[in-house]
Design goal:
The complex is a heterodimer of chains A (329) and B (171). By secondary structure, chain A is of the alpha+beta class. Chain A is 30% helix and 20% strand. The chains are: A alpha+beta (329), B alpha+beta (171).
Chain lengths: 329, 171
């Protein structure tokens, strides 16, 4: 690990000013991803500003009936919070399906959003990778692609975002609260992570020095009836091959409202808007669920090593919608 | 900044010149010579380094020592009371919950942290969403998935944890 300076932030504005003014500085959260990257040589900050002591550690109801999640709330605490379990069960389920008990105790909400891909070529400094070293090439294309993207990838990068939590949050229309050198701004989570395009080194739209302070979840009554399902090679402590977060509201056999997002299949948590449009106002039948899956997955462009994901994701989505609608298979 | 105030196994320490690169695991093993916590993968994937920080189980290998200013750390060395083993240690002996023993300190610290999470009502991926957690074998295996045992002593590890969980909930 390269030498670096460590400081503990006690004031958010000063922490932001410190990192913004120093291109070699990074914020440190729970460290579960960044410390590992520093050891691997994937990241080599010259200065770490530890923001975990800043008072962003609460889960609170907002006056509008939503929930404000502090950036430093640990994944385990968020998963077990009564407001999350009762109003947004898919979020609690997503968190509990990620990582291990120890890692969930360490990982923060903001850090979870900012974790980087687990693409083996990204994490191995001995192989070319456009995300780690822009312009060096993509080793995954033509390589081992079991855990790679089928939606929204580019010729420069086919990595996926690894978070489960973010998939549920994207389905829930979450808003990311950010503090930067010139003040606060809000970024809809759906616009927070980027598709790779020709700049896969940039995972998100955050500027250097901008700090996540909270994630806001809006009041969303249909989310009380929601599920997160993760398909993986191992039953526990493994990243998703595919995952689905879904909420569904049906009245008299007709779909009133729906939220769907996919994980493990794109460079960002994938909001399935085409599938949603194919469901809203239509009958809650297995045939319509299949049409919705096909509408979303029609643009899928899998690699030779992950073509199975298209059918796996289709089947997972249809099965979940059936479960949510109480429609017999 | 290189000073660190930290309590390890009930002893308050006032450490100077802690290199920022030092992880909590390296601090414990290399500087304090508490070698019970093990370095397995050094990537947070095996759980051999699991310790309790303010009562919560964490991977000491992914945690910078300086990030633990003011924290209370318990390692495997801090569990027994004199010659009396912690109930979880005694259960691992009774149920033969290990073979080579390398993962054992992490397994035991993790199990203690896990039982506290379950007692608090923390849900799990395999469990019901209710407040009361019944620690059957599926629950124990899911909640302990961050601790690998390459000897494959899982059957006896689960038996040891189940035993302590039942005795604790009965008392």
């Amino acid at each position: 690990m390269n030498p670096f300076a460590y400081e503990r932030a006690s004031d958010a504005v000063r922490a932001v000013a410190a990192v913004a003014a120093d291109p070699g500085a990074m914020f440190l959260g729970g460290g579960t991803n960044l410390v590992d990257h520093m050891r691997l040589g994937v990241a080599a900050p010259e200065r770490l500003v530890d923001v975990t002591r800043l008072p962003f550690d609460r889960v609170e109801e907002t006056p509008e009936g939503g929930v404000r999640i502090g950036a430093n709330v640990r994944n385990s605490d968020l998963a077990e919070h009564p407001l999350i379990r009762t109003r947004y069960p898919m979020l609690s389920q997503a968190l509990l399906s990620g990582a291990s008990g120890q890692l969930r105790n360490m990982a923060t909400t903001a850090g979870n959003l900012l974790q980087r891909t687990r693409c083996v070529y990204f994490q191995n400094v001995g192989t070319p990778c456009n995300k780690r070293r822009p312009g060096s090439g993509c080793s995954a294309i033509g390589g081992y692609t079991r855990y790679h993207a089928i939606l929204g990838a580019s010729e420069h990068c086919i990595a996926v975002h690894p978070s489960d939590m973010a998939v549920a949050m994207v389905a829930l229309d979450a808003m990311v609260m950010v503090l930067g050198p010139s003040g606060e701004r809000q970024i809809p989570l759906i616009d927070f992570h980027r598709l790779p395009g020709d700049a896969p080194e940039r995972d998100t739209v955050l500027q250097h020095g901008e700090l996540i302070t909270a994630v806001m979840l809006p009041a969303l009554p249909l989310a009380a009836h929601s599920l997160y399902r993760k398909v993986r090679d191992r039953r526990s402590f493994a990243f998703a091959l595919v995952s689905v977060a879904a909420a569904l509201q049906v009245r008299d056999g007709t779909i009133q409202d729906v939220r769907i997002a996919f994980g493990g299949v794109a460079h960002k948590p994938w909001r399935a808007t085409r599938a949603e449009e194919t469901l809203r106002g239509y009958p809650a039948t297995p045939e319509q669920f299949a049409r919705a899956a096909d509408a979303e997955l029609g643009s899928a462009q899998p690699q030779p090593g992950n073509a199975f994901k298209v059918k796996m994701l289709r089947n997972t989505l249809i099965a979940m919608l059936r479960d949510l609608a109480g429609v017999a298979g | 900044m290189d000073a660190l105030h930290i309590a390890i196994n009930g002893v308050a320490l006032d450490l100077k010149k802690v290199d920022a690169r030092t992880t909590l695991l390296d601090l414990l093993r290399d500087r304090l010579h508490l070698t019970g916590s093990k370095k397995g993968c050094d990537h947070g994937q095996c759980g051999a380094c699991t310790v309790l920080a303010n009562g919560r189980r964490i991977n000491a290998c992914l945690s910078l020592a300086l990030a633990h200013e003011g924290d209370v750390i318990t390692t495997i060395e801090g569990l027994a009371q004199g010659d009396t083993l912690h109930p979880m240690q005694a259960a691992f002996v009774e149920h033969d919950g290990f073979q080579c023993g390398y993962c054992t300190p992490g397994q035991i610290c993790s199990a203690i942290g896990m039982l506290e999470e379950a007692r608090r009502g923390q849900p799990s991926h395999v469990g019901s969403d209710g407040g009361h957690v019944e620690l059957d074998d599926a629950e124990i295996r899911e909640r302990m998935s961050g601790n690998l045992c390459r000897c494959g002593a899982y059957v006896n590890i689960v038996a040891a944890i189940r035993d302590v969980a039942r005795r604790t909930s009965a008392s």
